[in-house]
Amino acid sequence: MRACVYSRFGPASDVLELRDLPDTALANGDVKVRLAFSGVNPSDVKARAGARPGVTELPFPLICPHSDGAGTIVEVGPEVSANRIGERVWIWNGQWQRPFGTAADTIVLPAEQAVALPEGVTFETGASLGIPGLTAAQVIFGGGDVSGKTLLIHGGNGSVGHLAVQLAADAGARVLCTASPSGFDRCKDAGADQVFDYRSKDLAQEILAVTDGDLLDRIIDPEFGENIAVNSELVAPNGTIAAYGSAKEMTPTVPFGSLLFRAVKVDITLIYILATEARRQAIQRLHNALSRGGLTCPVARVFPLQDTGKAHVAVEAGGRTGAILVDTQS
Known about the structure:
Elements: E1 2-5, H1 12-15, E2 17-20, E3 30-40, H2 42-49, E4 68-76, E5 88-91, E6 106-110, E7 114-116, H3 123-126, H4 129-141, E8 150-153, H5 159-170, E9 174-179, H6 184-190, E10 194-197, H7 203-210, E11 216-221, H8 224-234, E12 235-243, H9 256-260, E13 265-268, H10 276-291, E14 299-304, H11 308-317, E15 323-327
Parallel strand pairs: 8-9, 8-11, 9-10, 11-12, 12-13, 14-15
Antiparallel strand pairs: 1-2, 3-4, 3-6, 3-15, 4-5, 5-7
Helix pairs in contact: 4-5, 4-10, 7-8
């Protein structure tokens, strides 16, 4: 197989290289997928750079990065129905706790990690459903249906946030979100009812002004530590703060008293280890929204496989308005 790999931490241009590697043998329950696209996420970039907290050495001697992708099943192992050959699929956890991910022309992995794409959904969209799609679905629906509820989504212009806004709006929620002013229109186009400047010193008061003082049922947050103070002013009794990151403040000070006397739930999502039933439900939520046109997954740029390093640089640069993909057959 052709794969982009690295064997040491470092800048993308220094450590990523295209190689021809032996094909991986299929074990019981495995499928082989001929990949069309690989999705690049910030977690892939941090792992390659050696920037993940507490990680000081590579978990495997040689790593082919990326957890997300989409393609066609071309071979099945024992205990997998031959009827799956030719099935169009998207991939989750392609490189989670495994050496070889989706930055390659093929991948071998357990059959349940290759999910049949709904009819009419493109491979480009499929390559965006793993980390960003499942995270968005879980933080929105992890507490159940949101129809008729008011949600606040911080970072509504981000990769996960943009999908989360669409999912919440499609499900009948009232959606408030924060973003930088340059992203306001994109948030509104995705379904946000109101958008607020995340840098405002009076953010809580501005939000409460449009809710007539009503507190919020569910708050979605990619920066838990940075936003905990304002969230504690906004979350309703028995409400939930659904967090999926806190990179800017990894050791936050939490106003426990305020949260305690509202019985606030803090629901932290790490999509790689989502429980089986919760993952099944999140997948179904994504498929339902895609099938009725309530979810689109924009693509910012596509790079050929040999330029996977440039794709990493594009993710590191930030400010993108869609997925960064690698064309694995180019």
